[in-house]
Design a protein that fits this description.
380 residues; alpha+beta; Endonuclease III, domain 1; Nucleoside Triphosphate Pyrophosphohydrolase; eight-stranded mixed sheet; 13% strand
């Protein structure tokens, strides 16, 4: 969840403003200027050639930022390129069928991101005449856009001095400036936002480069582990390196223990059609498709006689597949079985070609891939 915005409502001021000059002592102000300039020079020479960096279109930059939340760059690139081919403009996104949008997003997870994004696109069409707003507060007011994303769009698309603070930037700033405390705590979080604001205000002409340099440094050099301090452009300013405390920053509380969960999926077939259902609105992964399934106890037997499974009778004791995946702190085992539907069951019967056009929950998409492979092998 992105932190909520408060004090950033007033426009950020450049570093030569009297307010910033009074607040920072001369040595610290000079240090921050050197950090900012070193980062900008480094970014110009070392930045990756990413598709969303080849444009200043706020729509494309927005889509890339939404996709990159909780997702690695290498995963996002093909999704972004396919998205921009299918929905090249904000207007096309706003009017697209929700099932098409979910299909384009299929596999990226955190599907509320794209539902909120389409709602935001529709707001832009209604309230802003189809033009992406330039004002920070107007961007922040859009559905699904928090303080970080609004800052990223403002700075990268419009070169405005809006700060950003994501996981990479938190790590970089915490280490350089020795910011102790949990970054989610109010006071520590405010300190980090202030640092980000000060840095992006150093050179008003290079706001985009400064913010992207912070993200890039965190992604390529100042990583969570196996840091590449020898090639870091700001190593001589880094508190954590000087104190030999790199592993301590950023400081975070211990993670909650993982929870094991187990599900049974039932693959019921009627001639060449399979039974699937669509998740209800409001549920996790709402409106995506899946094979009928139930959650069972981690140690429960799989004989199909339990009342929770009474709508289906397992046809074979051996599962089609076992799929392990994680959602936040949950470690999930999904076992899929050939089954027979006992009477009327909710859902629809569709062929494999029809199923391939539907947006599936990631784990169930893997079941569909196995069914498609087996069907292909049976024909050939």
């Amino acid at each position: 969840m992105r932190p909520n915005i408060g004090a950033v409502r007033q426009a950020e001021k450049p570093s030569n403003s009297p307010a910033l000059q009074r607040r920072l002592a001369a040595p610290e102000l000079l240090r921050r200027r050197r950090v900012a300039r070193s980062l900008i020079v480094w970014f110009a020479r070392n930045s990756r050639d990413l598709p969303w960096r080849r444009t200043h279109d706020p729509y494309a930059i927005w889509i890339s930022e939404i996709m990159l939340q909780q997702t690695q760059v290498k995963t996002v690139i093909p999704y972004f390129e396919r998205w921009m081919r299918q929905l090249p403009t904000l207007a096309a996104f706003a009017r697209a069928r929700p099932q098409k949008v979910l299909k384009l997003w299929e596999g990226l997870g955190y599907y509320s991101r794209v539902r909120h994004a389409q709602a935001a696109a529709q707001v832009i069409m209604r309230r802003h005449g189809g033009r992406f707003p330039r004002n920070f507060d107007d961007i922040l007011a859009l559905p699904g856009i928090g303080r970080y994303t609004a800052g990223a769009i403002s700075s990268i698309a419009f070169n405005q001095p809006a700060p950003i603070l994501d996981g990479n930037v938190i790590r970089v700033l915490s280490r350089i400036f020795g910011v102790e405390g949990n970054p989610r705590d109010k006071q520590t979080n405010a300190t980090l936002w202030q640092l980000a604001r000060d840095l992006v205000s150093i050179d008003p002409a290079r706001c985009s480069d400064l913010n992207q340099s912070l993200m890039e440094l965190g992604a390529l050099v100042c990583t969570p582990r196996q840091m590449k301090c020898a090639v870091c452009p700001v190593r001589k300013f880094c508190f954590a390196l000087r104190e030999d405390r790199l592993a301590e920053f950023p400081m975070r509380p211990p993670r909650a223990p993982a929870t094991e969960r187990r599900f049974m999926a039932f693959v019921a077939r009627k001639q060449n059609r399979f039974l699937v259902r669509q998740r209800l609105g409001g549920a996790v992964n709402a409106h995506l498709w899946e094979f009928p399934n139930v959650e069972i106890a981690v140690k429960e037997e799989k004989d199909g006689k339990d009342n929770k499974h009474r709508a289906f009778q397992i046809a074979q004791a051996r599962p089609i597949c076992r799929i392990r995946h994680s959602i936040t702190r949950h470690r999930i085992l999904l076992e899929a079985y050939h089954a027979r539907a006992a009477g009327e069951t909710p859902g629809v019967w569709k062929t494999i070609p029809q199923l391939k056009h539907l947006p599936f929950v990631s784990a169930h998409r893997k079941i569909l891939a196995i069914l498609a492979r087996d069907a292909f092998m049976a024909v050939h």
